[in-house]
Each structure stands twice: as structure tokens, then as C-alpha cells.
Amino acid sequence: MINRETATFKRTYGEDAALYPLPLQRYSIAAVLLIAFLLFPLMASEYLLGLANLIGIAALGAVGLNILVGNTGQISIGHGAFMSVGAYTAAVLGSRYGVPWWGALPAGGAMAALVGTLFGTPSLRIKGLYLAISTLAAQLIIEWVLNHVTWISGGVGAVIYVDKPTVFGLELKSNLGMYYFIYVALAVGVLAALNLLRTHIGRAFIAVRDRDIAAEIIGINIFRTKLTAFAVSSFYAGVTGVLYTYYYGMANYEAFTLPISIQFLAMVIIGGLGSVLGSILGAVFITLLPISLDIMLSSVGRMFMDDAAVASITTNIQLMLFGGLIMFFLVVEPDGLNKLWRNVKDYFRVWPFPYL
Q1: What residues are paired with 171 via a beta bridge?
Q2: Residue 274 counted as domain residue
Q3: pLDDT in tens, 231-248
Q4: Which domain holds residue 177?
Q5: Could you tell me whether strands 170-171 and 166-167 are parallel, antiparallel, or unpaired per DSSP bridges?
Q6: Is the distance from CB of 260 to CB of 323 less than 8 angstroms?
Q7: Number of structural domains in the chain
Q8: Is residue 268 in some structural domain?
Q9: Strand boundaries in the chain, DSSP class E
Q10: Which of 78, 109, 121, 140 would bridge with 238, disulfide CB 3.0–4.6 Å?
Q11: What tens digit of pLDDT does each residue of 88-107 get?
């Protein structure tokens, strides 16, 4: 048996504190980046690139929400509303004031962080279900503002169109161009989240999640820690909303309604609470599952009925199967997809001697 973790000696503090201290981990990450940025985009079809773009945007939003829900223990069902804040901020700055994407992108995240911090202030007094209701109020209030404050969105049902981002004079109109734009943002967001959770701020998040009273006793400022978590999570949500806006070429509040917030919450629960990798796996699962069910039901349904009948029942059956599969998965593995991945890694770490 060859154990890749043996004979790896750490001689400096930097080596011991490295994000990926083992050579096998570094090789694996390098292989993933090679496939993601070179092999896949050059070999994939337009349809697969479109799916990958949706997955990348969703993964960034799920990583941000997991920082709040999984690592800090603060429930939020207003993630879609904070995404809409970032989306409309970037759309207004770009369409009315000519701000380029590299200015509108952080501005959308910053505005969402400010709004998220405002609605996170009740977290000092309330938690659990009551905090979830507070974030639900944020979802409803922000939707109302976008519908009725004409200076922001132009009124009910208004859509703000934006130009595609331009990088080095090249407008990213194709799925391939947007793929690199989205996945560079995702890579930066994932790296920032991994490093944040290793700092004293990340350790404070986990301490508040596990036992907030004990955390306060040892000197952690509970209120500041919770607000920081809301700000960071909302910043990720705002950037996610900006990416949606640039990808579709418009900002539309209907893309950030309450079902979207529930969908992102499902991503972090199914992927694994408190895990960056779990957030990505959950985004892949939730994004691809409805599409897979739709293809499967359409193929089977056409064997017994015409297209009109298939279209009339496919949506309802898809929703039932979607909910049923999520419930089944949570019963079978409540710790999420990340736990399944850890089980696979632990098995092959000592294979073929599983008793070690």
C-alpha cells in the first residue's frame, strides 16, 4: 500500500498552514483547474457550456449562503433578495451611468452587503425560526421596493437591459466567453471563502454556530460576528446577482423571488452545511436534477401519449419527483453530498486495507 500522506514533513509554519499541504491535494486541484479552464470549455457544446455557466453562478451564491447558514448557524431565506440588490445596482450603474463591469461588479456586492447587514441586525436578539422570518421579511420588502420605486427598476415588471462585459476590448457575447468570466469569479470566491474560514473571523463564525454563549464568554463579539457573516454572505449574493445580470443581459426581479431563495437553501443543505465543496456539489445537484427529470419524463411520456399531454403533466410530476428525491436524499445522508465524498476519500486512502 502506498499512502500519499506519509513522508510529508512540514519544516516551516507556512508549510503547516498551507491551504493544501499534501502533494496529492495540490495535484488534484491542478488537475481540476486544467480540466475546468482548458479541456472542458474547448470540447463542450454550446448547450453544455450554458449548463456549466448556470452551475457556476449558482455555486458562487451557494458558497456565500453556506458561510452564513453552515458556518455561522444563521438561517436565511432572503438570499434571492440580496441577489436582486446586486443585480439592480450593477444594472443601474451600467445602463444609466456607464460604469464598466469591473466597477459595477464589486459595487453590486457592496450594496448587497450593506442591505444584508441592515436586515441582519435582528440576529442579535433572535435566532432560528424567528430569524428565518426576519429574512423572509427582507425578501418581501426588497421585492416590493423593486416593484414600486420607479427610480430603481422603472416600475412593476420593469426590466433593465445591460451590455455584456468587455474584457481587453472583447465583448463576451458567447457562452464560452461568459464561461471564463463566471468561473474566474467562482475561483476567486471559492479561494476567498476557504481562506476566510481559516482566519480568526472564520473560527469566530464556527464558535458562534456551535455555542454562542460560550463564544461570548471567551471574548468573541457575537453581534459583530453575526453581522460580518451577513455582510460576507450578502456580498457573495450580490456578486451572484450581477453575474446573472451579465449572463442574461438584463436585470429582472422575477429571477430573484422567494423560490430562488429556497432553492439556494436546498443547495447548501443537500451539499453539506459548513462545506465549500458541498456548496458546489449542491449547486450541481439542484441545477441538473430538474433538467434530468424533464428529459427523462419527456422521453418516457412520448412512448404513451402525444406531446401536448406530456407537456401538461410533466411539470407537476417533475416537481413531485424533485421534492421526493430531496427528502429521500436527506433521510439517507443528512450530512449531504460532501459527506459521501469524504466517505469515498476515506475508503481509497487506506485501500486495499480498509481495516487500517
Answers
A1: 166
A2: no
A3: 999 999 999 999 999 999
A4: 21-258
A5: antiparallel
A6: no
A7: 1
A8: no
A9: 160-161, 166-167, 170-171, 250-251
A10: 109
A11: 999 999 888 888 999 999 99
